[in-house]
Each structure stands twice: as structure tokens, then as C-alpha cells.
Amino acid sequence: MASLLHNVRTSGAWIAPALNSSGYRADFTPESLPGIERFMTEHSAHGIAAAGGLLATDVGPRLLALGAYLGETVRHSLGGLWETDDQDPHGEMNIVLRLSDGSTIWPVQRVIKRFQNGPEDSIVGYAIGLGLRLSAQSPAPPNHRRSWLRRS
């Protein structure tokens, strides 16, 4: 059986070309996240996958892959390391990305919340709150991350 860390890496690498082939930009840049948001809107509504949509089958592995993609996008921009626990029975839900400033985020949980709750748990808003800047935004001041995202 592959390790959870291996699954995170391969899932993120697998979902990007799949998204690209379906018309969504997926190049691990902050500018690609509105496309991921659009994907979620077009293929789900408040915890229900759209009939015949790209989340209609294999929703769990696809949400894991989208979470891995989100995490890799954040990691490429802000730096950080993945942390997994292969002994945790809920390991996929508890995948951590420890950012270079020491803060901790759970990208897979964020994608699941977006799936369950809809746009109120926006992936783009989450990324902006972390300090990622999309091209249409002004540059972020240093350490512009909201305090509620930090853990002691």
C-alpha cells in the first residue's frame, strides 16, 4: 500500500492534467484557483455532486486530489512541507501543510468544506486569506496572513 504522502503527491499531479483537459486552468499558480472555484461550482452544490458531472463518481479521491492541488499551489507560493500520518484512520482528512512561517493549514479539509457548503467556503477567498495574490490584486504586504489561520 502506498503511503499517504505518496498519495497526496500523485493525486495533485494527476488532477492537474485532468482539469486542464476539461477546460480548467491547473498550473499550480494562484491565478489557477478561480478555475478550481469554477470547477466546484459547475460540478457540485452544497454537498451534492452534479448529475453526470466530474464529481458524480469517485468523489472522495477527487476531493483528495483537489485538496492536494490546492495545497501544492499554496506550497509553491509560500513554501512548506506536507505532513501525513499513515496510522491515522482519518489520515486523508487530516493531511497537513506546514507553511514556511510555521503556520499549519489543511487544504483537503478546505476543499471538502467547499464541496459541502458551497461558495461561502471559497477556495479563492481561502488562498487570499493565506496571503496568495492573484494577478488582479495588489501585492501583499509581508506576513499578511490573518491571525485566525495561525496556530501556536
Description:
The chain has 152 residues and is mainly alpha-helical. It has a single domain, classed as Four Helix Bundle (Hemerythrin (Met), subunit A) (Up-down Bundle). Helix content is 45%, strand content 9%. The protein is built from 5 helices and 5 strands; from the N terminus they run H-H-E-E-H-E-E-E-H-H. It has a 3-stranded antiparallel beta sheet with strand order 3-4-5, with helices on one face. Helix 1 crosses helix 3 and helix 3 packs across helix 4. The radius of gyration is 15 Å and the shape is globular.
Describe the structure concisely.
The protein has five helices and five strands. It has 152 residues and is mainly α. The protein has one domain (4-149): Four Helix Bundle (Hemerythrin (Met), subunit A) (Up-down Bundle), CATH 1.20.120.
State the domain count: 1
pLDDT < 50 stretches: 138-152
Which structural category fits the helices and strands? mainly alpha
If you average the pLDDT, what whole number results?
Answer: 89
Going by CATH, the architecture would be Up-down Bundle
Output the radius of gyration. Answer: 15 Å
CATH fold topology: Four Helix Bundle (Hemerythrin (Met), subunit A)
Q: How would you spell out the order of helices and strands?
A: HHEEHEEEHH
Number of strands: 5
Strands of the largest sheet, in order across it?
3-4-5
- Helical content stands at 40-55%
CATH secondary-structure class: Mainly Alpha
Question: Count of DSSP helices?
Answer: 5
Distance N to C terminus: 34 Å
